[in-house]
Structures are given as structure tokens and as C-alpha cells.
Predict the structure.
Amino acid sequence: MRVAWQTCAIAAGSRAAGRIDWIGMSVSSTLMSRRVKLSAPLQGALYMTAAAFFFSIMNYLVRLAAQELEPIEVAFFRNLFALLFMLPWLLRVGRSGLATKRLTGHVWRALLGMGAMACWFYSVTLMPLAEAVALNFTVPLFATAGAALILGEVVRARRWTATVFGFLGVMVILRPGFTEITWVTGLPILAAAFMAASALMVKSLSATESPNTIVLYMNLILTPVSLIPALFVWQWPSMTTLFYMALLGLLAAVAQIALTRAYSVADASAVLPLDYTRLPFIAVIAFLAFGEVPDLWTWVGAGIIAASTLYIAHREMRIARIEDTKPRLTRRAVSQTPRGR
């Protein structure tokens, strides 16, 4: 079954290569013509679902490529091809696409992304895909803790309780004392911590940088950075594996842009639940391609983590709305205050 899956993927890719321009133009024109008919939450939901699906396909491609190459070398080619697929946009916008006053922030974001990518690529190579994805759902939990401990944001008791509850979901998946816990099982959790730190950097950069510029600088910096460790385990890939990694780079660029678009057109609380479609997506892919079947505890633990992060997102959006209404209420109160004559 795995061979048939890979053969279908190669055949589909080769057939699609000659039509990709026509398809891209058709899809773009269709979306442009229908954009006015789609509400912001629906647009955000479509972007997030697309991002979740593309991320799931990426995990499958990483597993395939890592059967021949070390995961760190796969990471290099992922960055290289993602950068190449961003170049047409850069050529179109010119030097303005590189304009930034926060180069240091981009460097830090890229280094954090390198740590996340290395841990994640090794985790999806060495452990069941669905279990790795479920443990990686802890990114918002780490982000909440990081926002409080590093950025100094106020996180009250309810969100701290939800964060602790979410990490209990991790314990349900790992079941210490009932199953053996190795360093491999810690990789997706460590990747989640790096991803959370990277997300906090993106949140800061988004105040002044466009989504495309953020993605471009990440790939621009990560390509040479990831090449250094890849050289120590270098092996020239076959054409099949090179195809996998080219597709991986394309999907990486598209998924990152879809993700940023989802958060830009709709509230986080509206689109975040759809990020958890990654688990059923990857469960189906892992079953069809590798015969992997996630156990009941993986689904239960993932549900606990998802419920915790959704509650955290709900509380953050509610607090944000309250903070937004305060200035308006203050201005209204001032305008209605009797003035002396």
C-alpha cells in the first residue's frame, strides 16, 4: 500500500506540473470573483483548513524523504525550495519585499524556527505521526506561559488552569508508568516549545512587517543556517526524494501564508478550532501510507489539549474585546461630562 501511495503521488505531481500555471490562474480568478460573497470568518476557516491539510501532507513528505536522507538534510532542502518558491513574489515587488527595520527580530525568529524544525522533523521520522501531531498541539500552552514569563503579559488564574489542564492531556498521551518514555517522545514537545517562542516573535514582527516578508526572511536565513549541520551528514538525494522535498518546500510556503491569512481575516477564536483538523488529516494519511493506527489515548489526550487551548483562545479574545471597549467608553464618558461655562 505504501508503494502504491508513493507511486500515485509521483504520477499526480508529474501530471500536475504542466498545468499548475493554468490551475493557479483559474483558482485565483475564482477566489477574487467570489471574495465579496464570503464572510471574514468563512474565509479564515477556509485558510486555516487549507493550512492544516498542507501541514499534514508536509509531515508525510518529511517521513518519505527521511527514509533516504537524515531529517536535518531534509530540513535544508525544505528551506531551500521554500525560498525558491518565494522568489517570484520577491521579483514582482522588488526591493520593497526586503525592506525591514527589524532584521535582528527576523534572525531570532529564524533560529527559533530552526530548533523547532529540527526537533519536529526527527519526531515525525522516529515516532507515529498522529502521536507526534497530538503532542505538538501544546504550542498554544507554551505560548501562554511564554507570554506571561517572557513578555510580561497578564495571564490570570483561568488561563493558567487551562494551561495546566492541557499539559495533563500530554500525560494522558504519554501515560508515564504504563508505557516507556524515551527521548524521542520529548521531541514533539520540545518542538512545540520552540514553535511557541517563534510564534511570539511573529506576533511582535507582525506589528511592522507583512506576512510575506516574515515568511521570506525566515527561509532566507534558515537556508544557509540549516545547510551547516546538513553538510555533516550530506548525501545526494535521488530524483524521487528531490521531488518529495521540492513539493515539501512549495507546501511549506503556501501553508505558512494560508496560516497568516487565516489569522489576519478572522478572530483567532474563530479559526483556531480548525487547526485541530491536522489530527484526523494525519491519522488518515498515516493509516493509508504506513499502516499506523493511533490508539484511544492519543485521541483522548489530544481532545484534552485542544479543549484547553480553545478555552485559552476564547479568554484572550474576550479580554481583547474588553480592552478595546474601554477607550471608547472613556471617550463617551468624557464627551457627556457637563462642562463649566
